[in-house]
Amino acid sequence: MRSIHLVALTVTAVQVELARGLWYGTSSGCVDRPGFKLCTQRVYDSGVDCRNDCGDNDDDCYYDCRCLESQHMINCIATSCWNEVYSCAYQRQALELRAVCADVDMDQIPFFPAPDNAPGGCACNIGQVLKKQDLITSHAVDCGLPETELEQDLRGCQCCTMSALISSIWDTCPDTDPNYITASYWNETLFSPYDWDTCGPTLREYDCANTLGFGADSAGGIKNFYSPDNVPENGTGPLTNTGVSITTPISGSTFTWTFGPSTYAIMAAANATTVSSANVSATVSSATTASYTTGHGAQETGAGESAAPILLKPSIRGLFTLLGSTLFLLA
Q: Where does the signal peptide begin and end (predicted)?
C-alpha cells in the first residue's frame, strides 16, 4: 500500500508541476525571435485545445497532449532558437519531453544530453545526471541478482542504489547546488524512507561496483560510492550556461529527428544575430516557484522548489518499479 500511495503522490505532483510555464520563457536570445514567439504560441494554443478535450481525470489523455506539445516545442527551438540547444534551458525542455511521454528513448531527443564542454552549454550537464540515474534505477530493480539472493542482499542493494544516486549528482556537477539536480527529490522519496543514514555498515560490507554491479556502464558506471559520513560538501552554484556562442546550427541547416512514430523535418532559421547564451534573460514560472528573471544565465530560486529538479524527477513508471519491488520484498 505504501508504494501505491507514494506513486499516487508523485503523479499528482508531476501533473501540477508540469503545468504551462516550465519552458524557459522569452525569445530574447533566439536567432529568429519573431518566428520563435509565433511558433511557441501556436504550440501552446494547440496544447490548450487538446487538454480541454480530455475528460475529467483522464491522465492518459493529459499526458498525450503534453507529450505532443513538448515535441513541437523542441521543433520550435531547433528551428528558431538553434543557438540555445545546449543551454540549461533547452536541456530542461528535453527533460520535460522525457517526463510527460511514455517509454522515451532519450537517444532520440536531439541535442540531448549535451556533450561535455559544449559551446553555450549548461555548466552542469543535467542530461548526463538524468541518464545515469535512469541506468541506476533500472539496475536497482534486482541489482542483477536472482530473487533468492536479492532477498538476502536486499539492504545492500538499497544502500548501493542510494550511494550511486548521490554519486550521479555530486560527481557530475560538484559545483552546483544539488537541490537543483534531484537531491531534494531523492531525499524525500528514497533516502528518508529507506534510512540512508544507517547505510554506513552495509556499504562497508558490500562491493557496490562489482558484486552488485553498479560499476558497469549499463548501471550508470559509478566510480565512487559514498557513505553517509563522507558525502562531498554541497556545491552552491546555480545552473548557468558557459557563455560561449553557437554561431551555426549544430546539425546543419536541415535535419530530421524521429520520436516514436513521428518524424520531424527541421529547417534552421537564418542567423540574424548571435547572442551569447550567458546573457539571455529568461522568465520561468511554475506551480511551485515564483516567476524570476536572470540576466547572466544563472537561475535563482523562487519561493518554492526550483524548476530544475521538477524536470529531472525520475519517471513515474521507473520509480514505481524501484520502490514497488523493494517494498514487496520487505513485506
A: 1-21
Which of 234, 231, 218, 230 shows the shortest CA–CA distance to 137? 218
pLDDT category of residue 316 using cuts at 50, 70 and 90: very low
C-alpha cell at 153: 542482499
Residue 147 burial (10 A CB sphere; 0-12, 13-18, 19+): exposed
The set of cell numbers assigned to 177 is 547546488
Domain ranges of the chain: 2-123+248-277+312-319, 143-237
The string of pLDDT tens digits covering residues 107-149 is 899 999 999 889 989 999 989 999 999 999 999 998 988 888 8
Q: What angle do CA 140, 166, 236 make, to 5 degrees?
A: 155
Q: How far does CA 16 lie from the centroid of its chain?
A: 16
Give dist(CA 55, CA 95) in Å, integer: 26
Q: What is the DSSP letter of 287?
A: S
Q: How many helices (H) and strands (E) does the chain have?
A: 11, 4
Are 202 and 208 a contacting pair, CB within 8 Å? no
**Residues 7 and 263: beta-carbon distance below 8 Å:** no
What is the spatial distance between Cα 284 and Cα 23, in angstroms, rounded to a whole number?
7
Enter the C-alpha cell of residue 146: 536472482
Residue 26 has a pLDDT of 55
Residue 241 is classified by DSSP as: B
List pLDDT tens digits, range 167-190. 999 999 999 999 888 888 899 989
In this structure, which amino acid lies at residue 176?
T
Q: What confidence tier does 331 reach under pLDDT thresholds 50, 70, 90?
A: very low
Q: Are 144 and 213 in contact (CB under 8 A)?
A: yes
